[in-house]
Amino acid sequence: MFFEPSVFLVKDLISSMGYPGLAFLMALDATIVPMPSAAVMGFAGALCYEGRYDIALVTAAGAFGSMLGSVSMYLVGLWGGRPFAERYGKYIGLGEERIRTAEGWFKRHGDPVVFICQLVPVAKDLIPFPAGLAKMRLRRFATFSFLGSIPFCFILAYIGLYFGQDWEMAVAVVDRYDLLVLALFVVLTAIYLVHRKRRGRSRERS
User: Fold this and answer.
1) Between 70 and 203, whose confidence is greater?
2) Are 147 and 115 in contact (CB under 8 A)?
3) First and final CA of the chain: distance in angstroms?
4) Which helix (H) or strand (E) holds 116?
5) Handedness of CA 30, 33, 34, 39 (dihedral sign)
6) Which helix or strand (DSSP H or E) is residue 7 part of?
7) For the chain, how many structural domains are there in total?
8) What is the pTM for the complete model shown?
9) What is the reported pLDDT for 12?
């Protein structure tokens, strides 16, 4: 179960402020503020179980808030540029090597990388800053961030809806396997890249 003090804040804000409070918490989660998104969406889902909230509106509010938080980090990367990244990147989990890797993703695969990363725990928090460095168009970034956040938010909220009063136990299990999901994402991405590279070679030969 979750024991972070932030969970009490999650419950109070969502219970008192409703959908705007949910969106605010998910916006914080998308920045460098340590906010447990699994607890935020899971608790909101549990309130859907009680009939207080609607699962569709919960998903939309969570995705919208996540998009706003991602845009704020995107703007830091866009306006601060590489000098800001070199000086402060290590404080937000973005060392020089990680920044170069992310920039390489954009050069090779383009903007859809943002959508894919929004589906994955951990990766979704790292991609906005490099997207700003790569000067991705703001409208496209916001669109991909919002669309990618929808399934992420819905799954967590549905877990809360399904388990009801036992939502904390269920969400804690999901949160525990964040790194496993990230590892699976990395493996699948590597397989896709290898397949794409081989297919490109086959076309060149033909």
Assistant:
1) 70
2) yes
3) 57
4) helix 112-118
5) negative
6) helix 5-17
7) 1
8) 0.76
9) 84
